[in-house]
Specification:
This protein is of the alpha/beta class. It is 31% helix and 17% strand. It is built from 28 helices and 27 strands. A seven-stranded mixed β-sheet has the order 5-4-17-16-15-6-7, with helices on one face. Helix 8 packs across helix 12 (283-295) and helix 17 crosses helix 19. It starts with a strand and ends in a 5-residue tail after the last strand. The structure holds ligand MGD (2 copies), iron/sulfur cluster and molybdenum atom. The site of one ligand MGD has 35 residues, from helix 6 and helix 13. Residues 111, 134, 138, 187 line the site of molybdenum atom.
Length: 717
């Protein structure tokens, strides 16, 4: 009989820091359960975490490095050794750098993952500024808001994780965030859906600002069902109420902010009556919600992708950040807390990483060679559509190679067909992956990655978080390797020893933990490290607000200098019935695309049986009355069409959405179908987004407020 044992570890099926118990029989992982003793996750486990053994042992996992044998897309591969693979990549990267310049090697990553700091470091050390990620539509705008308002390069987090001196939030605002539905962890602030739900239940007042009736809206004191993309107007009106009714925190404003008077004048005209026709939220409801927020202390605002994915994201998030300051909720117990741990975990070196905040440090002379240089003043990485387009058009120049690290841009980025063309045009494509995805099919070399069950790590999560948790190596499948180990190895082969002084992942972890006073083995045994948390840091540290004025900048001269509005403004999204009334006659519905699914992490998990059973087909939420007028029955296959293309999904009736809005899932492909496409062109919603007006500050895209029409697929298949 095989011996049974349990290993304490931490799940990494999302950004998460859930501590878990890994159940072993002999050498085999048989089950994952939540760890009831964990001070942070307290036994919580979501379906993705439970599916980790299915991922680990999945027969389709790539088990050794592969080299393309036939033409791109022929799905013919030969296995090669790691040494061959990395030598070939190093040789190619070196040659391109010598012949054309380091910027001709582009790098891309998906959402935040454990390797991201040193992957960014690799870009900087190698010398390429052409680094792209979904940052412009995910968290970077909010980080930038924090940076320009407070000088702090992380976003504030709702103080819902209990620790010494903390208090439970009395009022919680859920603003464009569905973590209580997807039940995972966020990327930018590592907020946990499970914990957030608990805190919402305990809060005295709950305000939900979302076009969809998400779970907490059912019992919320205020649910503002706004028109998608109009949060900027709503937030300005809330600021107007808070100031005009004198609900502000005078002490905080007088001592710790600049620009209050200018803001007061600026928002005079932004009354709730002004916002009502824009947002469709009755003026009285805006007033009432603003009063509740400003008078119930402490209060925190959990924001999310609903704010990021619009053409007015930076300005809107600035308004939200200013609301926190006006009401004195920043860094107070139970309010919006500035996390402290990164100071201990990271070291300042000449090779500053983009690190937790998504701020790519890169020498200015390199920045000027970025393919989108000068387009978006607040975008430190290359805006994703601009990255791929430069390869197609050759303007300003055509990169020759791209390394795609844990990302599936054909599914998760817009302009999908253009990306496909770019992938065909590239001379050399490297993909680090678990599976042969539609994107990986375009690789010249595929590097097979280990899952979180296959290495020891001090896991810090991409965003600012509360604790550092230990992931334990309990299994090994094929000849896969940890991404960070591979990055270090490749860096060494390229002579980048100064930036990569560590032999391997273990040494890197020792280094990262230095500030904590713990050795790596000691840390692994403990399983968790929770650094000291302090509140009111701006009171004890005069430099805490690290802006030019050393205060919270309601009015920002720096932004003004950069050509960005120094006070928050509202812009109507580019594709709405208001901005494009003629187009709206043909495409009368508003399309929200990509609310996160409980079963999947973006394009992942479609091959994992337990998850796929939960959500077997792509779904689009539609109001039953709208469906009736369109002759669409529940669960029918429908076409969703925009001026850019059309895709098929099944209709899911939902009366918690406005009659002229639909909400479609994103990143669908069908691993069970034939390579190289695996059916991705049928249902991937990002095929519906093309050129549009981007956010002028950040390059963000309006993925939540486009125009579409929906009609039945006639043979209903
Ligand atoms: N329309 C629309 N599009 C969206 C969104 C939306 O809301 N609407 N959301 C956007 C957001 S917020 C984000 S963050 C992006 C996410 O975009 P991506 O990060 O590209 O999404 P994933 O599907 O998670 O792709 C990750 C790929 O990496 C592989 N992978 C997973 N873990 C690892 C690992 O540890 N190592 C390696 N080497 N590979 C790994 C998986 O197998 C998968 O194929 O999508 C964006 N796209
Ligand atoms: N299970 C699971 N968990 C995940 C992920 C996953 O793929 N699956 N992805 C992870 C990643 S990378 C991220 S970034 C986070 C994102 O997590 P969230 O920030 O929660 O983002 P979404 O899930 O897109 O939910 C956004 C919410 O905003 C609403 N919304 C849409 N448009 C608007 C608008 O114009 N205004 C307002 N106010 N609200 C709007 C939607 O109805 C939805 O309820 O989730 C992470 N967690
Ligand atoms: S929320 Fe994330 S970390 Fe927690 S169990 Fe689910 S996938 Fe794992
Ligand atoms: Mo994200």
């Amino acid at each position: 009989m095989k011996t049974k044992r349990i290993v304490k570890s931490a799940c990494r099926m999302c950004h998460g820091i859930c501590q878990v118990l890994v159940h072993m029989e002999g050498e085999r992982v048989v089950k994952i359960t939540g760890d009831p003793q964990s001070p942070i996750s307290r036994g919580y486990l979501c379906p993705k975490g439970a599916a980790a053994p299915e991922l680990l042992y999945h027969p389709d996992r790539i088990r050794q490095p592969l080299k393309r044998a036939g033409k791109r897309g022929e799905n013919r591969w030969v296995p090669i050794s790691w040494d061959e693979a990395l030598e070939e990549i190093a040789g190619k990267f070196r040659a391109i750098k010598e012949e054309s310049g380091a910027e001709y090697v582009g790098m891309t990553q998906g959402t935040g993952r454990p390797y991201e700091n040193i992957y960014n470091r690799f870009a900087n050390a190698f010398g390429t500024p052409n680094f792209t990620a979904p940052a412009h539509i995910c968290y970077l705008p909010r980080i930038m808001v924090s940076l320009f308002s407070t000088g702090f390069p992380l976003m504030p987090v709702c103080d819902v994780r209990p620790h010494e001196g903390s208090a439970a939030p009395a009022c919680i605002v859920i603003w464009g965030c569905n973590l209580t539905g997807s039940m995972g962890h966020d990327s930018g602030d590592c907020m946990c859906g499970g914990l957030l739900s608990l805190s919402i239940r305990k809060a005295r007042k709950v305000i939900v600002i979302d076009p969809r009736r998400i779970n907490p809206a059912e019992k919320a004191d205020h649910w503002l069902q706004l028109r998608p993309g109009t949060d900027g107007a709503l937030a300005l009106a809330m600021i107007h109420v808070v100031i005009s009714e004198n609900l502000v925190d005078r002490e905080f404003i007088n001592n710790y902010t600049t620009g209050f008077n200018r803001l007061s004048q600026h928002v005079e005209k932004f009354t709730p009556e002004w916002a009502e026709p824009i947002t469709r939220v009755p003026a009285d409801d805006i007033r009432a919600a603003a009063r509740t927020y400003a008078t119930t202390k402490p209060a925190c605002i959990q924001w999310g992708n609903g704010l990021d994915q619009s053409a007015c994201n930076f300005q809107t998030a600035r308004s939200v950040m200013i609301l926190r300051a006006l009401t004195g909720n920043l860094d107070v117990p139970g309010g919006d807390f500035f996390p402290t741990w990164p100071r201990e975990m990271h070291h300042k070196t000449p090779f500053v990483d983009i690190n937790f905040s998504g701020l790519q440090y890169c020498p200015p002379e390199n920045m000027e060679r970025k393919v989108d240089h000068g387009l978006y003043p607040l975008m430190t990485t290359v805006q994703q559509p601009a990255f791929w387009r430069s390869i197609v058009t050759g303007h300003p120049y055509r990169m020759r190679a791209v390394w795609i690290m844990s990302s599936n841009p054909l599914l998760t980025a817009t302009h999908s067909l253009e990306i496909e063309e770019a992938l065909k045009k590239l001379e050399f494509v490297v993909v680090s992956e678990f599976f042969l995805t539609p994107t990986a099919q375009y690789a010249d070399i595929i590097l097979p990655s280990s899952t979180w069950l296959e290495y020891d790590e001090a896991h810090t999560s991409g965003g600012n978080t509360y604790a550092i948790v230990a992931e334990r190596k309990v299994a090994k499948v094929g000849d896969t390797r940890n991404d960070q180990d591979v990055i270090i190895d490749l860096a060494h082969r390229l002579g980048l020893h100064e930036a990569f002084p560590w032999k391997d992942l273990r040494e890197l972890n020792e280094w990262a933990l230095e500030g904590s006073g713990l050795g790596f083995d000691e840390f692994l045994d403990k399983g968790i490290y929770i650094p000291e948390h302090r509140y009111y840091k701006y009171k004890t540290d005069p430099e805490f607000f690290n802006t030019p004025s050393k205060k919270f900048e309601i009015y920002s001269e720096t932004l003004s200098f950069m050509g960005v509005s120094p006070l928050p403004v509202y812009r109507e999204p580019p594709l709405t019935p208001v901005s494009k009334p003629d187009l709206a006659k043909e495409f009368p519905l508003t399309l929200m695309a990509g609310v996160k699914m409980k079963a999947f992490f973006h394009s992942e998990g479609r091959q994992l049986e337990s998850l796929r059973k939960m959500n077997p087909d792509p779904l689009v939420e539609i109001h039953p009355d709208t469906a009736a007028t369109l002759d669409i029955g529940e669960n029918d296959w429908v076409w969703i069409e925009t001026p850019v293309g059309r895709v098929k999904m099944r209709a899911k009736f939902f009366d918690g959405i406005a009659q002229d809005v639909v909400s479609a899932q994103h990143a669908w492909w069908f691993p069970e179908e034939d390579p190289p496409e695996y059916g991705w062109k049928k249902s991937s919603v990002n095929l519906l987004f093309g050129d549009t007006e981007y956010d002028p500050d950040t390059g963000s895209e309006s993925l939540r407020n486009g125009l579409c029409r929906v009609y039945p697929v006639s043979d209903n298949r």
